[in-house]
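Assemble and predict.
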Amino acid sequence: MTISPLELLLLEMASGFYLGAFVLYLSEILLSRPPRIAWAPVTAGVGGVLFQSLAIFIRFGFQGHVALLSLREVLSFFSWSLVLTFLYLEHQKKVRILGLFIFGIAFFSTLMVLGISFRTPVLSTGAPVGLLLSIHTLLIDLGLASAALAFMVSVLYLLLDHFLRQKIFNRFFSRIPSLETLDQLNNNFSGIGFVFLTAGLFFAMIWSWEKFERIVPLATQGRLAFIGAILVWLLYAMTVLVRKNRRFRGKQAAYLSISGFFVFAATMMVLAFFSKGSHFIL
Amino acid sequence: MIKITLAGVNHKTAPVEIRERIAYPKENLSSAVRVLSHEDSVLECLLLSTCNRVEVLTITSNIHPSPDFFTDFLSRTHPALTSVPLRPHLYYKTDSEAVEHLFQVTASLDSMVVGEPQITGQVKESFEVCRKENSVGPYLNQIFQRAVSSAKRVRSETAISHLPVSISYAACQLARKIFQDMSNKSVLLLGGGEMAQLTARHMKKMGVRSLTLMTRDPAKGAPLAAEYEATYAPMTRLNEVLAEADMVVCSTGAETYLLTVPILESAMERRGYRPLFLIDIAVPRNIDPAISQLSNTFLYNIDDLRSVVLSNQKEREMEAFAAREIVRQEVAQFEKWRTERSAVPLIQALRKHTEELRLAEIDRFSRTLDSLPEEARKQVLLLTQSLMNKMLHPTYQTLRNSSNIDEAWEWITRCYGLPPEILSKANPDPSLSQDLSEKSVLDSPVSNLPLPGEQTC
């Protein structure tokens, strides 16, 4: 099976729109008088997400299931969910500066998806994919997107905290939302990420039990991924629980979210590049 | 040609002793506008009076009123001013300079504190008074609309009004960088100094949930608390109130630190480590600087706030350059509109003259025309009209686009051999003729297209 030319075209279009949105958000920060087109980056983002939605829809239809079995699919769904969440946030909270990071990541993700697609045109092994595996991969990817968002707002939090303490009042400072807003967003994204991750791992365990009659994989790479997943889960559990302790507000919570995302992303990388397991095919 | 003239006195040209005597109380503004609008030469007028400026803008026909006209008017409406020589303090601007000045005033580029937001509202209020006194016509309406629009553009396209330039306001703006919603925040004012009172006023405007005032002397603190709808608390309750407050403004005359690291550490624990914004505007300082090392506490002293204000002032000056460019663009658009509009009575006069010629020629050939069948006669009449319209169209365009309407008119009268008095005959009352001429010209077949940039007033 090769990748559909229409899907490639749609991804290219989405990538172009994301790049446009990224450049527009960047100009808002770099230029002292940004162009009077506040609606333009959001519109570019909406355009990109529409094209990518179609590409994902075609992909799912093409392969006959909704599981994210390759790095290409994981990245595509990851950037799509990131952009969609941002568009909702932009509408609700007006956190414009986040657009710069989101569309930067979305652009590079779709670019990577395109690169992988050209390099390896084979899509899947053709093996039947069950519902449990599909739900597991979708939930884990949504968890990764939430972790990425928590990571981004945490970086912004630390930057603003630094600016406020060092009395640095530059253009970037003026565009960051309040510490309270960022802390709240970090709390929300970490919480949502933890729920997705827990549910995703739960479905993975059921799937593993059904398929191999064991929860812990036998293969070394599989075990590595399993340990990584448990580590990520523990870290996120700690983040969520620790936030209940009021001492770990703001800065401490931001550090936890940043480390949580790094471990999450590293685990995904391990899975993507080293696992020869049954459900993550490069 | 319509003439725009502006004269006035402001904080740059006159000391406060003059300004306070020349400012019109609100209740006297209408009567002053009435006096001005009844002047023979004045077609439209605007009178703007604030604590920092009194400005008079007039629209007249053909000639600019002299500066003496304005000093006379100001002296007449302010009997107490007769002994004061106003002329040295008066600035006088005409046409596009006058419009540019008013636009700059409305956009707060001519204010004492550049970018302050009140002036736009004051211009709007003055315009409303003049409108009620029927001293506003199409020109003033257009000037006002464009002035407000340029002020809006300046506010939205530059950061001129976003950068606080007062210490108390800068403190409030910084609070917005820490807290998302001020409506659920409590503020503790330690001491009742002038700066603390100003901050309290800003905080009230920002809609904080509660204000608590704490002074060493209850006799001084309690009435002050009542004035700002704050709760008064004695100093003995400091630890208790500190645990609840989100912002602390310190401005007491104490010689030692009132807030130390152990006090704050204990307070932070009790308040669940929620962020705390501390402003120390007292000299000597009332808050131990070591507190800034504590997590989730943000301490700013008077020098920090002053540096914020200074950097904002510099930024505002930079922004003012861009703002003036916006104003210049708006003035250029207005001038284009004014030129086009000024051409309307001339076009009407020319049209009337040529129409008279056409009808006279038709009359001369009436016998021949009458012998033609009805349909053919109609066609001939249409032909004459169409021919004339086609021939005159470039002239109309030249008039509309002419930068110097008087020169253009002189050229046209010579070209067409028109009597010089034709304009005054065709246009006895300029204000009336604006509307009539516009209607007739726009209704005529030659001018089906609206004048570029035309707006209904």
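Residues 425-457 of chain B have pLDDT under 50 and may be disordered.
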